Amino acid sequence: MASRILVIASFIAIAVAIVTAFEPSPLQDFCVADPTSSARVNGLACLDSKKVQANHFSFSGLHIPGNTSNALGSALKPVFVAQLPGLNTLGISMARIDYAPWGLVPPHSHPRATEILTVLEGRLLVGFVTSNPENRLITKVLEKGDVFVFPIGLVHFQRNVGPGNAFSISSLSSQNPGVILIANTLFGS
Q1: Using the chain's own numbering, where are the disulfide bonds (predicted)?
Q2: Nearest-angstrom CA–CA distance, 86 and 57
């Protein structure tokens, strides 16, 4: 009887492992965001597929530098679902970040996304603070062509440490990664 229970338990464990490892296919090819709909799911409601056009899947303007003449010396140009409706439900987004000399993207986190940053011009000091098992600061100076990943939810920053302007492209694992600016959160209330 004990061996029979062991066999059944093993079979159930294997079946559960197979089921939890399965990633279902999407139910539809795409779900272009319909910002006029009041319905909200995991993302925005889908636009009627008969109204979908190529411009719902296209964004122009990442080649244009952002205005860095502000207190931080940085500018962000997001390509999230609000700017590119075709991203809805796809779980990805991106942004262009421009940095004046010594420009800073201050400590912040993305509660719903891992970020991978690629330096396209300049030299950046980047880093994040770990939370487990101890709080550690992990930093690196990146050169043109270097890539760095910021794990989901961790506080991170970027600073231009080169003599001229810099810019990078970030890809994020969410159509709406969210951003929590640490200084505003701590001292803004």
Answers
A1: 31-46
A2: 5
Q: Record the tokens describing residue 186, joined without a space.
A: 């701590």
pTM for the model = 0.81
Please tell me what DSSP assigns to residue 33: B
107 Rama sector, left if φ>0, alpha if ψ -120 to 50, beta otherwise: beta
Taking the alpha carbons of 156, 157, 161, 163 in that order, is the dihedral positive or negative?
positive
Whether 83 has a pLDDT exceeding 60, the answer reads yes
- Span 40-187: which CATH code? 2.60.120.10
Let me know: does 141 contact 125? Beta carbons within 8 Å: yes
Interval 51-69 mean pLDDT: 96
Q: How far apart are CA 75 and CA 70, in angstroms?
A: 8
Domain limits, the chain: 40-187
Q: In the structure encoding, which two tokens stand for residue 122, read together?
A: 């300049």
Q: Does 63 appear as a known binding residue?
A: no
Confirm whether residue 56 is marked as ligand binding: no
Q: What is the pLDDT of residues 8-36, one digit of tens each?
A: 555 555 555 544 444 455 677 888 998 88
Comparing 159 with 36, which gets the higher pLDDT?
Answer: 159
Report the chain's terminal Cα–Cα distance, integer Å.
Answer: 64
